[in-house]
Structure formats: C-alpha cells, structure tokens
Amino acid sequence: VEVVQGGVYLRTAAVGAHRGWLAVEAAPDRAALRATVSASLRDGLMPIVARVRRLFDLDAEPGAIAAHLARDPRLAAHVRARPGLRVAGAFEPFEAAARAVLGQQVSLAAARTLAGRLAARLGEPVATPHAGLTHVFPTAERVARGADGLARALGVPSRRAETLAAIARALAR
Question: Which residue, of 70, 91, 96, 100, is most buried by count of CB atoms within 10 Å of its CB?
C-alpha cells in the first residue's frame, strides 16, 4: 500500500472506480511538497489532493500551534527543539482505524506486517511501476464482507479481528 524510497513517499490510491499510485517528496527548496499522481487517477485529482493535505497535515498553522503550546512550561522546550513538527495523518479514515486496531500491543514493524497482510488478503491489486506497491488498502465494505477467518489469516487474536470487523461493518453502514 505504501513505501518510502529515497525520501519519496509512494502509495496506492483508489478514488471511485479509479486505481493508481502517487508519489510525494519535498520540493528542492524544502519549503513545499511536490506530488506526482498516476494518470489513472486524474479524474480523482481533487480528492487525492485533499487526502494528501490530510496525510501531511498541510492545513495546520505551525506558527499558531507553536505559539499556543509554547505557553505551557512543560512543552516550551519541546516546541523550540522541533519547530513545525506535525502529527502524522492518514490517507483514509478507515485505513487509520484499521491500522490503530492492528497496531495494538505489537511493534511498529509488526503493525506494518499486519496491515500488509490485510491489504494482500482484501485489498484490490493495482499495477504500478513501483516495487512494493501492489494493492490498494481495502475499504470498510470489503473488510466487512471478508471478516470470516480474518484472525487466522492475519495472525491476530480473535478479539482484535472482531474489533476490526465491527468497525468495518459500522463504517460500511
């Protein structure tokens, strides 16, 4: 679903019936991001731009946030040490929820592995020119329909798979 290669964030995406990939990297002056979107996603460009903005927290106002947080004596030194630090966002809300559930009580590496297993099992295959990008993350509807046997297929406790399925069903409705 996603990979970072040479400082470039690459991922698959689905917008309506369109499937493809995108690449996001820092512009040469490092003051902006530059996104490249596959031609197959051109009809979904505006939703893709909105998702990239959310993913990279581009609508935040770092100066205003820093000014507010720096008033707290416990946070001031941290704000000075990491100016402009943003919270990692999510490309899709269901993907964020699924990753949060899968990432419970496991390492970051294990959480990535579990998300990859979910994508391989229930995500749609997509052709890209980038090694490692093979599937789009499954929708809530696909996870809700494919919930049987999910714990065994992913190698997670049954309660975790049940939680993921319940979230998927709720969002699908």
Answer: 91
pLDDT digits 0-9 by tens, 113-165: 999 999 999 999 999 999 999 999 999 999 999 999 999 999 999 999 999 99
The H or E element that residue 10 is part of is strand 8-15
Least confident piece of the model among 40-44, 71-75, 79-83, 169-173: 79-83
Report the distance separating Cα 99 and Cα 27, nearest Å.
29
Residues 6+ positions from 69 with CB-CB distance below 8 Å? 75, 76, 79
- Sign, Cα dihedral of 89, 93, 98, 101: positive
pTM of the model: 0.87
